[in-house]
Design a protein that fits this description.
rod-shaped; coiled coil
Length: 178
């Protein structure tokens, strides 16, 4: 009987120890489950952040590509513009050397001189301003000649007004309101 009592006591103690171990195990299990849940949440959050960063990286890559393409287009446009400018400069140089270019420049100078003469006539009515003489100096400068070496064909176009047209400052512009 003593052995039965001892066995019963040991069984009770074992049962108590088993419940205690189960409680500790359950507590540890719950703690581990909480940690797993937290880690899963962190993993999900990190996954979202990684997705957002990947999305940002994709956006940045696309922006970089777009900027690179725009830069290349600008370089191409600049190269084309430089070629066009060089072509225009060549054309302008050719035109400036031509008689038409010289005449156009001379006409522009004469127009400017007529405007200047009107302004001088308004500001200084007591003085006489000879546009033809001013034009001769401009054309001499343009052609690089002195008074004796001017080109007669060019200067003849800017001769003083004929008596038949009093008040005209230039035969080509006689009908002009200037």
């Amino acid at each position: 009987m003593k052995a039965v009592l001892e066995l019963s006591r040991l069984t009770g103690a074992l049962e108590e120890e088993r419940r205690k171990c189960e409680a500790e195990f359950e507590e540890e299990r719950n703690g581990l489950l909480e940690r797993v849940a937290k880690l899963e949440a962190e993993k999900e959050e990190l996954s979202k952040e990684a997705g957002a960063q990947a999305s940002e990286m994709d956006i940045l890559k696309e922006e970089k590509e777009r900027l690179r393409d725009a830069h290349m287009e600008k370089k191409k446009a600049l190269k084309a513009a430089r070629k066009e400018i060089a072509s225009l400069r060549t054309s302008l140089d050719t035109f400036e050397e031509s008689e038409a270019g010289k005449n156009l420049f001379a006409n522009a100078c004469l127009t400017c001189l007529n405007i200047l003469k009107r302004k001088l006539d308004q500001d200084h009515p007591d003085q006489v301003w000879d546009v033809t003489e001013m034009a001769e100096y401009v054309i001499q400068d343009m052609e690089g000649t002195d008074e004796e070496g001017r080109a007669p064909a060019t200067m003849a176009a800017y001769a003083p007004p004929s008596p038949a047209r009093p008040g005209a400052s230039c035969p080509r512009r006689a009908s002009s309101p200037h």
